[in-house]
Amino acid sequence: MKKYRLTGIPTWAVQDRPREKLLSGGVHALSDTELLAVIIASGTRNHSAVDLAREILKSVDYDLNRLSRLSVNELSRLKGIGPAKAVKIISAMELGTRKQHFRKAEVTRITNSNDVYLIFYPLIGELDHEEFWILMLNRANLVLNKTRISQGGLSGTVIDTRLILKNAIDNLASSIIVCHNHPSGNKQPSEADKKITGSLKNAAAMMEIKVLDHLIITGNGYFSFADEGLL
């Protein structure tokens, strides 16, 4: 009978195996590759789970934001990753997003642009299309409500100033902050972004409503009109 030589993670020293390493040193002791390997759970005949995890991360330039946007079909095209493993990866990434959303949704008073970012990144930071939102505040900068104004395509969405102001008035807002995302990852405002911000600020002033800021959110940060002195 032909004998096969055992290869892969089972042959590693116990302290180097991702699962055992997590149990002994805690989750923070694991690299991104090792964490992904734990999720994948098993490799192929010639490649360990760590090998597969490394190839997955390499395919997205080790960018976890890009990984979270991959579909089941896109992940399944990678060698050694079938639909079952792809579903595990997507589910784990979504749990991370929901955890982040749950914690950040607790922001109720706006003190700076980062507070706004913490509210909206879980909603629009990783979308593959543009959305435009409005955050409504009272005189104490407490959040009254947030509403999606429009949803568009990859490169833009239609902004209706009248609809924005109607939502602000209906919620008795003293001030508003508008926010949209750039799926391209480019945080810099376009000329159209600058124009709508100026028009909205002027229109809101006639209603005695302040436009405190306009944030452009991407998968790797944000741009604040107020922070950059553009309001």
Most strands sheet: 5 strands, mixed
Helix content: 40-55%
Overall spatial form:
elongated
Name the CATH superfamily classification of the largest domain: Cytidine Deaminase, domain 2
| Proportion of strand residues | 15-25%
The CATH architecture classification of the largest domain is 3-Layer(aba) Sandwich
Q: Please give the alpha-carbon distance between the first and last residues.
A: 78 Å
Number of strand elements: 5
Radius of gyration: 23 Å
Tally of contiguous helical segments: 9
**Secondary-structure element order, N to C:** HHHHHHHEEHEHEE
By CATH reckoning, the class of the largest domain would read Alpha Beta
Strand order of the largest sheet: 2-1-3-4-5
How many domains in all?
Answer: 2
For this structure, the CATH topology of the largest domain is Cytidine Deaminase, domain 2
The class by helix and strand makeup works out as alpha+beta
Low-confidence stretches: 1-7
Explain what the structure shows:
With 231 residues, the chain is of the alpha+beta class. 43% of the residues lie in helices and 16% in strands. The protein has 9 helices and 5 strands. β4 (210-218) and β5 form a beta hairpin. It is elongated, with a radius of gyration of 23 Å. Mean pLDDT is 85; it is low at 1-7.
